[in-house]
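INTERNAL AUDIT FORM
Audit reference: QA-55
Scope: verify that the stored structure record matches its stored sequence.
Auditor: D.O.
Record contents follow.
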Amino acid sequence: MSPAEGRSGTPRSGGIRACLVPIFVLVLAMGSFQLGASFALGLFPRVGPAGAAALRILASSLILGFVRRPWRSLGRGRPLTGLVIYGLALGSMNTLFYMALKTLPLGVAVAIEFTGPLGVALAASRRWMDLIWIGLAAAGLSLLLPLGLSGDAVDLGGALFALGAGVFWALYILAGRRAGLTFGADAAGLGVIVAALVFVPAQYAIDGPRLFAPDLLPLALLVGLLSSALPYSMEMYALTRLPTRLFGTLMSLEPAVGALAGASLMGQHLSPLQWVGIAGVMAASAGAAAAGEVPAAAPTE
């Protein structure tokens, strides 16, 4: 229970004003992630989506490693299986999301991927009311996936990549809980390092020295800072100061923030039906959060 919550899980009297700052910080975190995604597109022509994801993972591991020095939590007989799964899920999620961004608008990719954590939340519930949120999510997806229902051209490959990213986001949440119980706040930094140790060498085997072209490194560091280090820190700040349900409800704004960022930063414009689809996914996520608990793990995407 956060400091602003009473026994019922709602903010105490006078706590609403205290929630304003963490709400603002959480919105900034969403904006930071979307801004980082827009900068990541600048890496695509040189190293492709998978190369951009590898550089981002590397940059994130360097930044979080320097700031937190998470390796201090290793040893003492602590099991590493959950941490390794967590890191592999994180790297796969990032890579597939960038593969989706190659052909999908940012808002559509985020909305499709968002079904991952939504699915985790709904799978843990047994209330009949959750059928409403499942129906809303399905209706929203039907307008975003290339099923011919909306009449808008959406790339099939990109949609499958986004769905795959959502699957690994769900695995990331489940494995992250296990890793968090073992390594605490250092789990995120260690997970990024695990991902870097696997995905960066693998991508270097494909791209060779051009992956580490000196002129790419400043942009890669910027992407790592905006997409992982800053939003992770800000989301953790907000999570410890907001009621869990409010945090989960606010996180449902992510697809809309992505769509707005895509329109303003990348010139991506969605059709009215695609906006309706995004709204359906957002409503399902907000409803599930208000009725229960949406997993609140920071995605570090």
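Auditor finding: record pair retrieved intact. The longest helix spans residues 156-183.
Action required: none
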